[in-house]
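User: Can you write out an input/output pair for a complex, sequences first and structure second?

Assistant: Here is one pair. Inputs:
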Amino acid sequence: MASSVIREILKQASRPGMISLAGGIPAPETFPMDILEEVFLKIIKRWGSSAFQYDLTEGFVPLREAAVPYLSRYSVEASTEEIFVSSGSQGLLDSLGKILISPGDIVAVESPTYLGAIQAFNPYGPRYVEMESDENGAIPESLEEVLIKNSPKFVYMVPTFQNPTGRTIPIERRKAIADIVIRYNALLIEDDPYAALRYQGKDVPSIKSMAPDHVLYATTLSKVFAPGLRVGLFVPPSGELGNWLVKAKQGTDLHTSTLSQAMAAVYLEGGYLEKRLPLICNFYHPRLNALLEAMDEYFPPDWNWSRPEGGMFLWAEGPDRTNIFELYKKALSCNVAFVPGEYFYANSENSRQAMRLNFTNADPDTLQHAVKTLASLIVN
Ligand SMILES: Cc1ncc(COP(=O)(O)O)c(C=O)c1O
């Protein structure tokens, strides 16, 4: 288990005076600090000591109940019993590795993909095959080819505002992907932390809604409440997978913190999230706009970058002659940090000269300054 390179990068990025577009964390200004006292009082009044007691591995029932209408907003129709709680989505990714991956098994991922998923799966010894992607995310024909040639144990995707690219798979492509996973009886993990962070454009239905028996849908409250709570939600296909994931979790942490789940339950059912979400989106939208405007103004024409309508990341690819690590080092010496693209590829020989830029943790002027600095390093 190699130590996380990204932690090293984030350590550099947190040096005093550094402008970091490297992290992937929500802005603390979006946390609902103003309502927490009220939320705590409600918890104590309603559940008393049981909010501090051991609880079911499947999850705190009031949270699972409150999650029914919440998930439905993102086109995931599930009953209380079909919804499970994990310790963040990351906890689920580890459980999936634990029960599904034996050494040498094949896992299909996007190219590039979420680094944390690779880190969660790696200790279980998988081999990866990468599906080809373009500006609309994973390409269905490539998924089909991978399923035919490699018979992966499962397919892992982040279809909406993907980490690291910010790309969203459009509806027609989602339908094609759903058809393919049904046709080849494959299991797809749809990791969806960012759908609620849409700043413009129209929602796209989940792949889960198109192939419910073949998709495990996962989301998290990390981006819409607070990541420190460590509360994730997931809906497996009907069958044994949910039970196996519960067994895996029993051995890991028995259950996710009851208090965190009680907070999440009140946040969802008390209408707090509904009020908060537009504030969060209004906070991030100008940051995304500022980043895109600065890229348009300063970045050289032989670079390409994504134009996300939400989420937390933008992905920029340079021409082949770019040396992204050289650029990374120069940027650090000018107090600007980003994450080099290579880390997001499961098989590094497929990696591009690219950078992931996070826009949630710097204000518009700072983002503009950072992009101008990066562009001047590229050109000179
Ligand atoms: C695609 C993706 N999946 C999972 C996670 C983990 O989130 P959580 O805080 O719920 O563990 C993240 C966090 O950045 C993510 O980007």
